[in-house]
Design goal:
177 residues, alpha+beta, Immunoglobulin-like, 5-stranded antiparallel β-sheet, 3-stranded antiparallel β-sheet, 8 strands, 15% helix, 25% strand, Fimbriae assembly protein, Adhesion_dom_sf
């Protein structure tokens, strides 16, 4: 009887090891791919400025009597660092495009959203910078630092804008020479 119990226990243990081995084998088939890149420069925006909120203000509907009417442009900038010395960078702003004018940033949709109004992004010379378009080149100093200056304002995209919340979201990508 003892011999039979020992054989049964031995069989169970061996079976358990086989099951454990099979599980380990399956786990061993999972590949982990590690990738990256070592670069000479990591040109980018100072960390404290990565998530920026630009206040465009509160405007009366009477400021938007016709398509193309704009509010005052509000400045915003980014401090750039760790760029190649004496190089140039460009910005590309991305986001949901306005339905009436795809060069503009659409207002976030919602029940209380303003209608027929969009956000216009301007470069440092206050020229329109269409969504998904490279900005003019921005020069970096001999230490690889610089400042990118932009502006933003509301613009009517129709002749009958409606009041409401007028928030928009954008992301940006920096490219350097």
């Amino acid at each position: 009887m003892k011999k039979h119990i020992k054989q049964t226990l031995l069989s169970l243990l061996c079976g358990g090891l086989l099951i454990h081995s099979a599980a380990a084998y399956e786990l061993g088939r999972v590949n982990i791919e590690l990738s990256g890149e070592i670069v000479a420069y990591s040109c980018g925006v100072e960390v404290s400025q990565a998530n920026k909120k630009v206040e465009l203000g509160r405007w009366a509907l009477k400021n938007f009597r016709a398509a193309g009417d704009k509010t005052q442009s509000m400045p915003f900038s980014f401090q750039l660092q760790n760029c190649p010395p004496s190089s140039a960078v460009t910005f590309v702003f991305s986001g949901k495009k306005d339905k009436q004018d795809s060069s503009l940033l659409a207002i976030n949709e919602g029940a209380s959203a303003a209608g027929f109004v969009a956000v216009e992004i301007l470069d440092s010379q206050k020229n329109r910078l269409p969504v998904e378009t490279k900005s003019p080149k921005i020069a970096m100093d001999i230490n690889g630092n610089g400042q990118a200056q932009f502006y933003a304002n509301y613009i009517a995209t129709g002749n009958r804008p409606t009041p409401g919340i007028a928030d928009a979201d954008a992301t940006f990508m920096i490219t350097y020479d």
